[in-house]
Design a protein that fits this description.
By secondary structure, the protein is α/β, with parallel strands linked by helices. It has eleven helices and seven strands. α2 crosses α3, α2 packs parallel to α6 and α7 packs across α8. Bound molecules: S-adenosylmethionine.
Length: 275
């Protein structure tokens, strides 16, 4: 797989500065920088913090647990989990500019003792075997062709008895996405598996599946509201605008059409590594 093309797709200079500028524009120059306040600008996936809260509900984290965020982006979810549940989060992300932005934003929130971001690949996680009590991954695997290796690596990083929460965009029955979408300019870096293939890949890696939900209707509803706001000229800047710049609006439109036309399915799942 061409990971350099994935990095090029996402990376740009000055991301942390743009996020902080958007945060200050929304909250005033002296507002304390908190994971909650940054959330509209640093959770880079459909349905923003609502989707992260749903992953959290599945994971039921306990204070002090060691949590792995696979494809941690600019670190918004990692900071939010660390602050909300008093856990230690390690994020791994491919895109160097995202890791650099995550470091600046983590320092700005005062969470550097609880959040660590490592630049690396989900297909060769730079973490020891069995090091984590829980893991999650939000809207990452659509960039990854070798999904079995992704799940094998997640399985290796978790201790027996632990859990993995996933929020994946899967393939819909009606054909491929309309490009460009937020995760890819073209089909060269977009790899959507069907929900059935996702289940099979998890089982092949050794996981059991505790929950598997198709949340496409909720995604469609959220996107309907976004479309209304875009139409009214009332849609504020969010993470996708800040990170993807000039192509963001077109990507958002295509994402909406992709879900509406049955070309994508949003899946949330909870998997367990057996004892
Ligand atoms: C849509 S963003 C989601 C970021 C983050 N999970 C969030 O929800 O805010 C997709 C992320 O996957 C990362 N990614 C894609 N392929 C990867 C790989 N092979 N290994 C690690 N990260 C990867 C990208 O760098 C990007 O940060």
């Amino acid at each position: 797989m061409n990971t350099a093309a994935v990095e090029r797709h996402y990376g740009s200079a000055g991301i942390a500065e743009r996020v902080l500028a958007a945060f200050r524009a929304a909250n005033g120059p002296d507002a304390p920088v908190t994971p909650e306040g940054l959330a509209p600008f640093d959770h880079f996936h459909g349905r923003g913090i609502t989707a992260t809260q749903e992953l959290a509900a599945q994971l039921a984290l306990q204070p002090g647990e060691r949590v792995l965020d696979i494809g941690s982006g600019i670190g918004g979810p990692a900071r939010w989990f660390a602050a909300q549940f008093e856990v230690q989060v390690t994020g791994v992300d491919l895109t160097p500019e995202f890791c650099a932005a995550a470091e600046v934003l983590t320092a700005a929130t005062g969470l550097a003792d609880r959040v660590r971001i490592i630049q690396g690949s989900a297909l060769a996680l730079p973490v020891p075997d069995g090091a984590f009590d829980a893991a999650y991954s939000q809207n990452v695997i659509m960039n990854i062709a070798d999904k079995r290796q992704f799940y094998r690596e997640a399985f290796r990083g978790l201790r027996p008895g632990s859990r993995l929460a996933l929020s994946n965009l899967c393939a819909g029955p009606a054909g491929e996405p309309y490009f460009p979408v937020p995760w890819a300019m073209t089909r060269d870096t977009s790899f959507l598996a069907t929900p059935e293939a996702m289940r099979a890949d998890l089982l092949a890696a050794g996981f059991t599946i505790a929950e598997f939900r198709d949340i496409t209707p909720a995604m469609r509803e959220a996107q309907r509201r976004t479309r209304e706001r875009i139409d009214k000229g009332d849609m504020p800047k969010i993470a996708v605008d800040i990170i993807m710049g000039e192509h963001a609006r077109e990507m958002q439109w295509n994402s909406i059409r992709t879900i509406d036309d049955g070309r994508g399915a949003a899946i949330e799942a909870l998997a367990r590594k057996p004892l």
